Amino acid sequence: MTLDPLSLSARNLANHIARGTLSPVDVTRATLDRVAALNPQINAIVQDCGDEAMEAAEALDKRIKAGGRVGKLAGVPVTIKVITDQAGHATTNGTKLAADLVADEDSPFVARMRAEDALIIGRTNTPAFSYRWFTSNAQHGTTLNPRNADLTPGGSSGGAGAATAAGLGHIAHGTDIAGSIRYPAYACGVQGLRPSVGRVPSYNMTGGARPIGPQLMAVSGPLALRVDDLRLALEVMSGEEPGDPLSYPVLLTGPDLPRRAALVRRPDGMAVDPRILDDLDRAAAMLRAAGWEVEEPASVPPLTEAKELQIDLWLMDGFAEKAAAAEAEGDPGALALIGRFAARAAEFQPNQLSAALQRRLALMREWRMFLSDYPVVLMPVSGELPFKADEDLTGADALNRIWDAQLSQIALPLLALPGLSVCSGIIDGVPSGVQIVTPPWREDIALMAGEVLEQGFGTPQPWQG
């Protein structure tokens, strides 16, 4: 094998494999060798799928040589987060409580990726119950940020972010209800896309019915080193599936929109690190140079209220059961989160749920109207540079500050908006990035703008250990 698979985009790698200029067996073996060399240092992949991947690669190789159909992700190595059903593996969600919850079938988007010949090399870590922007648990251990072990790799898809940054697969699956794709991408110096709600079908037979918050706000989506890899992953993962009645058959591209962007440097006046403000200014200049009109609007719809409503919906929906599960698991991060909101949860009255959902709709309307004027919004991913590892366990003041810094992480899902986290570079071992927000179902606009920024900031390079 003369070409280094990591030097190729996922699309180019699949094309090489389909044409026979690269062998899926060789690519898979090289990727698994890289996993063996680097993963012990960071613990991003916590369930091994290497034997299955090699078996699938050999079958794909035979099919290619026989002139059979080849999928869009032919031989592309991918990872799946342990929150998602994958046949033959435990859907642990980072807990000991679910250590033996083995799936009998794939979640719909996993089946779609397999049908397009993606090769699943492993399953990635998440904090217990996927509650934190930090990734450690008693079941699988702690995931380290390959860019800087003193920083969080993010969460809850911290394993996905770390695996992507280390080149352990071209595409990583993550989930996002309060930043769990966008923040690990930001913290690990890669790219991450939160799709529109209903874009990617994702249903766990092991999980039973979905609560209200996940129905309204939770999504599955991709992380990668390249924006086009996100686009290709979205093409494959998306679509309507009967197994997920909340999935919809919406086209991946929409009508032309004006190349007009809003620069929102401090949403709701939030505190933002100077380096992030500089990243946003540079991103705005890149868009202008590419022919976009970029403005700083005099007024922007609120995010803080959306953040608080997102938290309220989580607290109203089975909080006692969440607290009991956290106690049973004994995870420090989950218990700290439960403790922070316990008093607030105890005050809710039954009629507040309806009021919260009504107010949510009003806020969604405000943002949809704003996005009709500005199809792209540039804003921070977080108000702070990546947090120190386990900083949320250092006391109430730190936890409160972290939640304040994550305003856009928490608020945008309530508004049912997609978001793209674009890496703006790594300085002295500290990644940073900016966020692109678009109207629902217009990930194509986010990816188009994201490629402009990727060209300006530079494509992230994989950590070499």
Can you walk through the features of this model?
With 465 residues, this protein is α/β, with parallel strands linked by helices. It has a single domain, classed as Amidase signature (AS) domain (Amidase signature (AS) enzymes, Alpha-Beta Complex), CATH 3.90.1300.10. The protein contains 16 helices and 13 strands. It has helices at 10-19, 24-42, 50-65, 108-115, 158-165, 182-188, 212-217, 227-237, 274-289, 304-316, 319-329, 332-346, 351-373, 396-405, 407-414, 443-457, and strands spanning 45-48, 77-81, 119-124, 136-137, 141-142, 171-176, 191-194, 219-224, 260-263, 293-295, 376-380, 419-427, 430-437. An eleven-stranded mixed sheet has the order 1-3-2-6-8-7-12-13-11-9-10, with helices on both faces. The longest helix is centred in the last third of the chain and has 23 residues, at 351-373. Belongs to the amidase family.
Architecture in CATH? Alpha-Beta Complex
Tally of alpha and pi helices: 16
Unreliable spans: none
Outline type: globular
Quick take:
This protein is α/β, with parallel strands linked by helices. The protein has helices spanning 10-19, 24-42, 50-65, 108-115, 158-165, 182-188, 212-217, 227-237, 274-289, 304-316, 319-329, 332-346, 351-373, 396-405, 407-414, 443-457; strands at residues 45-48, 77-81, 119-124, 136-137, 141-142, 171-176, 191-194, 219-224, 260-263, 293-295, 376-380, 419-427, 430-437. Helix 8 packs antiparallel against helix 16 (443-457) and helix 11 runs antiparallel to helix 12.
